[in-house]
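Quick one: structure tokens for this chain, please?
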Amino acid sequence: MRRSEKKWMEYNELTTPFLTPDSDESVTSVAIELRDRMVKVEQQVLAQYTATAAYATLAQQGVDNARAEARSDLDRVQSTVLGLLDKLRAEQLNGFEGEPGHPSAAATSLNLDADARLTALEDRIADALDALERTAIENAALRQQVDALLAQQMQSQGWLASSGSATDLSLL
């Protein structure tokens, strides 16, 4: 922490006694007052630490909830896509089994149309998976940036002791 130049004591002030010899205050009363002030400072520091730990815990819970929601959304999308693919393949196999001989020109064009639709659907699924992967990578990068900004803010405001980090905070 920095101190302004006004707050530095002069050498003369450091050599003068804390209590004047003829003062009415006793050493005990000064010690009690200092102890009371230290207790207040300690309570303020503990309150600040508790608040910071509470915010960190809430942030972690929010991240966990977001991860769980993203995972369930991904699972739901995957199961829907796989179900649709299975349905399409089943329909396509039923079409092949229903025609014992050589397929007619109309059946061939339907099969080609179904193949084109299947290929287009697979391409769209691949694009969706790529978008999901990019989103996950961007999410991780944003999470790192937020963690870095939080640590920087906590360090600059003196919330952290020099021996700890923002990830070490927790409620007691």
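The mean pLDDT is 78.
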